[in-house]
Amino acid sequence: MKTAKYAFVRTLPVMAGYLVLGLGFGVLLQTKGYGLGWALAMSTLVYAGSMQYLAVDLLAGGASLVSAALMTLMVNARHLFYGVSMLERYRDAGPAKPYLIFALTDETYSLVCSGEAPEGVDQKRYYLLASLFDQLYWIAGSAAGAALGSVLPFDSTGIDFSMTALFLVVVTEQWRASRDHTPALVGLGVSLASLVVFGADNFLIPAMVGITLALTLLRGPLENREREEADHAGI
User: Quick one: which of 32, 40, 41, 190 could link to 60 by a disulfide (CB 3.0–4.6 Å)?
Assistant: First the structure.
């Protein structure tokens, strides 16, 4: 119970965002002619946030499977690098490991990587419950949006920006919680450089590769700095 309570409290900010974002997705899906069943199926089986928003236009526009696959790879390529960084944390997760991999969204990643759980909280079970709670929030929001969209008129203009808004909130919270802003600055710098070089339609994968390489090279100095700060705090 202590682990479940801790996971619930930690996921409350995500719940606030996911209910609203899921609501927007459900409404947008409904306005394109896809009902509650589609919302539940996509949020349960796809569960890909921004890609679900894009999938609405792909479905409505009759995009080919190849186009949909390439777009999904472009949008979700960052999860390849998330996955590499989670190898150690999920190594002994047991039967829950496949679900943990499936449910690793940006916001869940930030919760899992935000530090060690307090005494009395099962770390591995916390990973599972935080992932599960986050997905349930998303499913609930999506279902509510689809249901409301079928009975109430909505202007869906600008709804697809809500994922960007949540990402900015997560980045802000991570910035405030961290003493070392080097990873965030590296990510920002490499992303801007990739945007200039490759353009808005093609910068995502080069940016992810560049960030991964840069942080790999900086891993040693960053870990040394973290140990020095921890030793200093201990004194």
Answer: 32
Query: pTM to 2 decimals?
Result: 0.69
SS (HEC) of the chain = CHHHHHHHHHHHHHHHHHHHHHHHHHHHHHHCCCCHHHHHHHHHHCCCCHHHHHHHHHHHCCCCHHHHHHHHHHHHCHHHHHHHHCCCCCCCCHHHHHHHHHCCCHHHHHHHCCCCCCCCCCHHHHHHHHHHHHHHHHHHHHHHHHHHHCCCCCCCCCHHHHHHHHHHHHHHHHHHHCCCCHHHHHHHHHHHHHHHHHCCCCCHHHHHHHHHHHHHHHHHHHHHHHHHHHHHHHC
Please state, in angstroms and rounded to a whole number, the distance separating the CA atoms of residues 186 and 218.
10
Q: What are the tens digits of pLDDT across the range 136-189? A: 999 999 999 999 887 876 666 666 566 566 667 667 766 776 777 887 888 889
Say how far apart CA 3 and CA 122 lie, in whole Å. 6
